[in-house]
Amino acid sequence: MIIDLRGCADHALDIANTAVARGKSYLARQKGEPIPPGWAITSDGAPTTDPQEAIEGIILPMAEHKGYAIAAMMDMLSGVLTGGGFGAEVAGPYQAERRSRAGHFMLALNIEALQLLSEFNARIDALIAELKSVPLAPGFDEVFFPGEIEARNDAKNRNSGILLPADTIADLTKLPDEYGLRYDCSWSS
Fold first, then answer.
1. Model confidence at 159, in pLDDT bands (50, 70, 90)?
2. Taking Cα atoms as reference points, which of 178, 167, 21 lies closest to residue 187?
């Protein structure tokens, strides 16, 4: 879901319906670090902090049973309804040997069919102001609305570039050779 916030960072909801994105388990494995308890269970259903067991097992849903219900509904809309894959039929981005079968569901709403656009914009501004005005937790300087941190990082990365870990650069440098391609890139970490 994306809502245009006119000059602020657009509110984009692009999330896994799991406690954490599966890629975080791959990153933890790459770094040789455990994952936090509550992220995943093994293929046998036991809790795990081992990233490899998490990859081979199940990443738990966000918000327990409520997240499970949201994930099931998203699978119905983007998988079953669209004719795409659903459940175990869908392969993730880290399963390159499998066809994805991921379906996509998109819904566009004409705001002016529901209320005046100016009223909607004023209400969005009021909501953002309310979200950002809650008392700060100790040690924090600002409350962010969803998507705001990502928008700031995007602006910074477009200006300064993206810093990649050395092992990622090494992996990217090997790829052209594996496919017999020439490349003319300089990477820095």
1. very high
2. 167
pTM listed for this prediction: 0.71
Distance of CA 180 to the CA centre of its chain: 32
Kindly state the tokens that stand for 2: 């994306």
Give the 3-state secondary structure of 109-159. Answer: CCHHHCCCHHHHHHHHHHHHHHHHCCCCCCCCCCCCCCCHHHHHHHHHHHH
Tell me how many degrees the CA angle 145-36-172 measures, rounded to the nearest 5. 80
Structural contact between residues 72 and 94, judged by C-beta atoms closer than 8 angstroms: no
- The order of strands in the sheet holding 47-48 is 47-48, 40-41, 58-59
Does 176 have pLDDT greater than 60? yes
